[in-house]
Amino acid sequence: MTKRLSRSPRWIVLTAASAALVTVTAALPASAAARERPAPAAALGATQQIDPAALQASLGTPADGLFAGAMARVGGRDGRWTGTMGAVSTDPAASFRIGSITKLFTSTVVLQLVAEGRLSLDTPVQELLPGTFPAHWQPITVAQLISHTSGLPRAVCWDPNAVYTPADLVKTVTECPQAGEPVTGPDIPQVYNGVNYFVLGMVIEKVTHHSYAHEVSRRIVRPLGLGHTYVPGWGETALRAPALAPQLPPTDPWPWAEGGMVSDAPDLERFLRELLRGRLLPSAQQKLLFELPRHAERGFTRGGVQYAKLPDGTEVYGKSGSYGGSTNGVFATRDLRRSVVYSLVPLTTDEREITRRYLSIAAAAF
Q: What angle do CA 261, 334, 275 make, to 5 degrees?
């Protein structure tokens, strides 16, 4: 990797915000944490029809003063609905930076490499990327990176005037005295950390000898026909298609394999549907999408999918993400009865209000 990417302190906030979106909904009983989640019962909302009025109301109004705009797209066996509110495009193909939803693409590519025998989940990162971590650290495996159980320290040492390659970023984190060393032991707690996915992006490039963007395109984007989904080039601040929220300023996609991709609602809906139905992964890796590690505090599965249990008991799988001024998500029931893609443009920094709006949309969608 020879290109360099500009660093923004806002990434630290956005990474935390993405995790905060599921804190309310993803808490699981300890006894359930090590089990594969069963498919939702057929009776759970099986005959519930899409309610356009409830969905539109869930987006709020500009008069709320909390969001400049919002979009939601609901699909599944009962049909499809798309609605918007406020200062966002009504074009269903309008693009937006998907933030940490990017992680689902990254983990899918890694699991495909595992299926091909190019690496294993138990392979220590130190073997794949020698010198990336301090020599005295305990082994950190690919599986631990995917499921946020690596124990890697969070981003602490930052120079607001510096630029970083992915390798530079990881080095800055791992050599930061204030950050400390990884939490080790047989039961490493699950702690959401974007650094895990910078490392996974580096793993993809090392194993394949191709760029991260090339592998995502070859393995996911082109096979699924995702015409508005891509990994932007370094320094590519403008979107290639009309923006969902044109009022948002251009943003450098430097979060890369952690959160730098661009997509639109139809593409995200299709990607998650094909991922959950098994088109992208063989059965051995597919089951990891629904299997939680021990101590799954944030509800991320062993396959890197975000699991959430909504207040009414509905279980959904997908990913949330924030970057460039929007807060987004794509979720579906395991049986694909219902799915939702949403994008919000917050005027507030209150995570409680953002979470409340997401839950409102989820309640109307599922």
A: 40
Using CB atoms within 10 Å of the CB of residue 225, give its burial: 0 to 12 exposed, 13 to 18 middle, 19+ buried.
exposed
> Checking DSSP bridges between strand 338-346 and strand 326-333, what pairing results, if any?
antiparallel
Q: Are 342 and 358 in contact (CB under 8 A)?
A: yes
The string of DSSP letters for 5-55 reads EE--THHHHHHHHHHHTTTTT----GGGTTSBPPPPPTTSSTTPPP-HHHH
Amino acid 26 reads A
Angle at 61 between CA 60 and CA 64, to 5 degrees: 90
CB atoms within 10 A of CB 69: 23
Render each residue's pLDDT in the chain as its tens digit; 366 residues.
Answer: 434 444 443 343 334 444 444 443 443 333 333 334 444 433 333 457 999 999 999 999 999 999 999 999 999 998 999 999 999 999 999 999 999 999 999 999 999 999 999 999 999 999 999 999 999 999 999 999 999 999 998 877 877 677 778 999 899 988 888 878 887 766 778 889 999 999 999 999 999 999 999 999 999 999 999 999 999 998 899 999 999 999 999 998 889 999 999 999 999 999 999 999 999 999 999 999 999 987 665 699 999 999 999 989 999 999 999 999 999 999 999 999 999 999 999 999 999 999 999 999 999 999
CA Rg value for the chain: 19
In which region does residue 304 sit, left (phi positive, over 0), alpha (psi from -120 to 50) or beta (all else)? left
Gap between the Cα atoms of 286 and 279, Å rounded: 9
- Centroid of chain to Cα 29: 23
The domain made up of 5-365 is a member of CATH 3.40.50.300: no
Q: Where are the domains of the chain?
A: 5-365
As a whole number of angstroms, the distance between CA 214 and CA 161 comes to 29
Could you please report the per-residue DSSP string of 143-173?
HHHHTT-S-PPPP----TT-EE-HHHHHHHH
- Distance CA(256)–CA(254), nearest Å, equals 5
d(CA 258, CA 190): 17
